[in-house]
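SEVERITY: medium
COMPONENT: batch folding queue
REPORTER: lab tech (J.R.)

DESCRIPTION
The queue accepted two submissions in a row. Attaching both inputs and their returned structure tokens so the on-call engineer can compare them side by side.

ATTACHMENT 1
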Amino acid sequence: MSILSIATSGLSAASLRVNVAASNIANINTTGPLPVSGGSSTSASSGIAPTYPAAYVPLRVNQVSQSSGSAPGGTIATVSAVSPSYTAQSDPSAPFANQDGLVAAPNVDLASEFVELATAKYSFIANAKVIQAYAETEDTLLDIKT
């Protein structure tokens, strides 16, 4: 795998980290009804009850070294759901709160999300510098005069 391929895989992973962290931060207050044991959302006991969307399911990036193939190198980043995806939070004023006044809130740790953003920033900068150094070195080699 070439230097450029390795660095661009790092840029791609950093970009994915930013997107996932931004989505988690933007949806930190997107609550929903607490799921019941069957996996469906709780509803009122009346025959026709309004349905409410589920709470936002936070995501995380799993990044591993690309070690397969004839020329290993670089990184692979995939997205998966955080488990458990929600925590019970008190919000008795919500129309979908259960009898105890609880709703499902996304299991997002704001401090961890800001750490993810900082990590992605510095990873992106480092990989961009690798590409810049490679380009400068290549230009220098092409400018050699005899």
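ATTACHMENT 2
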Amino acid sequence: MTDEAGPWLVVGLGNPGPQYAANRHNVGFMVAELLAARVGGRFGRNRRSMAEVAEGRLGYGGPKLVLLKPLTYMNLSGGPVAALAQFFKVPPARIVAVHDELDIAYGQLRIKCGGGEGGHNGLRSMSKSLGTKDYVRVRFGIGRPPGRQDPADYVLSDFSAAERKELEFLVDRAADVVESVVTRGVEPTQNLYHGG
């Protein structure tokens, strides 16, 4: 079975550099890295955009995934996404952004197509650069900051020790969600994963 409709562009949102690697804001990078390992792709610097890219297929002859980690900072993520969407001729409906979400409890995953950005700078930049909000989002719940901590500081801090106990499982589950969106579609995936 070949993939007639062309590749999917899966964007892991995060900030480049080792100092950000374990931040809540970088969970998109974590999911993209796991997906690259699953499809046998390796991230390498892309010449056409400020991004690291890995490519591979989901299963034998399955859909092609182009996995992208922007090397710009979060608020400039849209440029590399738009450049690669154009190069690979990927329409917005086949672009999946994986990102952290303050408005969802830690450990919950939500899938939606289009809608607002909820104050997320990476999504805002993507919508602006793509000229549309009609792409798929896999929202990884990180919950609200405790007490009076500033949300901006909270997203740029590392997951807590308690959260890290579950993190690997949750990143794995988020990668499953992305695969399901690609192979089954948004609505069936919502039905499957929105139970919890």
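NOTES FROM REPORTER
The chain has a mean pLDDT of 94.
No errors were logged for either attachment.
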